[in-house]
Amino acid sequence: MGNGTVQPVEVRCFSFLKKICDERKWAFPHYFRLDRECSARELAEKLDLPLDLIEAVFINGLAMPMDDGQVKPGDRVGFVPPGTPGPYRALLGMVKGKE
Question: Which domain of life is it from (predicted)?
Fold first, then answer.
């Protein structure tokens, strides 16, 4: 990585977001060249994914709201749509406990 090459971002989409990627004939995972750090929202926009169909994002295995995520070249990113059943939301880290 110190040789000046930019590592692509590894992108996965789930549920009906995956259907969009399949229609575009993207591989699973899809590799996207990202030259600089950006927000997860910016990445979704660059990929022309429908923002209203994204509830959460995984970045390198950590789930968070899309607006909280920062993506760097070489990261692994997964976009999760709304509608994930309740127990799975907690297991995936999409729900925070009471503070």
Answer: Bacteria
